[in-house]
Design goal:
This protein is α/β, with parallel strands linked by helices and 172 residues long. The protein has six helices and five strands. The chain has one domain: HUPs (Rossmann fold, 3-Layer(aba) Sandwich). A five-stranded parallel beta sheet has the order 3-2-1-4-5, with helices on both faces. The structure holds adenosine-5'-diphosphate. The site of adenosine-5'-diphosphate (ADP) has 17 residues, from α1 and β4.
Length: 172
């Protein structure tokens, strides 16, 4: 497997960062990443190593591996783990924007706060919000974990590597 933290590099074009904990990545995340990818010369999917106040279900290596498998066909998408402030990490890659997905109104309050805080910390970086596609607007990592815990079908809700990982955990 490739390094979980590839060294940030600078390129001439426009780079954007798509930060999140991706615990685990869902089809909703993949949809936003795939829609954002053509808007930039490079998209860095930045996976928070250890989210604050949250024990992750999957390790950083697993979360990154799921994303890399699901996005393997996109040459200009890089998946990397990080453990600093988002804005600091965005600067390391020379990113001009952060990309976030917006589902229901409930996402708005948190995104509003984070958007302004990040703007204060990195005035040169804009946050760009993509509206969740209707078919994924109800989908969350925590919802997926709930379904998996009760043995429900995850088809179309998560990439196949994630569905396999849940099946293996249930079997063991
Ligand atoms: P965090 O750990 O920062 O809360 P997540 O890893 O859960 O973030 O998600 C990363 C980004 O993807 C966030 O902007 C979140 O709102 C967005 N997102 C999560 N699920 C979906 C979905 N089903 N459709 C669109 N965007 C989503």
């Amino acid at each position: 497997m490739r390094d979980t933290e590839p060294e940030p590099t600078l390129i001439p074009g426009r780079t954007a960062l798509c930060p999140g904990s991706y615990d685990p990545v869902t089809s909703g995340h993949i949809d936003v990443i795939r829609r954002a990818a053509p808007l930039f010369d490079r998209l860095v999917v930045a996976v928070v190593r250890q989210p604050r106040h949250k024990q992750t279900t999957f390790s950083i290596e697993e979360r990154i591996a799921f994303l890399r498998e699901a996005l393997a066909d996109l040459d200009h998408v890089v998946v990397a783990g990080f453990s600093t402030l988002v804005v600091e990490y965005a600067h390391k890659w020379g990113a001009v924007a952060l990309v976030r997905g917006l589902r229901a109104v409930s996402d708005y309050e948190w995104e509003f706060q984070m958007g302004h805080l990040n703007k204060r910390l990195g005035p040169d970086i804009e946050t760009v919000y993509l509206m969740a596609s209707p078919q994924y607007s109800f989908l969350s990592s925590s919802g997926v974990k709930e379904i998996a815990a009760f043995g429900g079908a995850l088809d179309e809700l998560v990439p196949s590597a994630v569905a396999r990982a849940f099946a293996e955990r249930t079997a063991s």
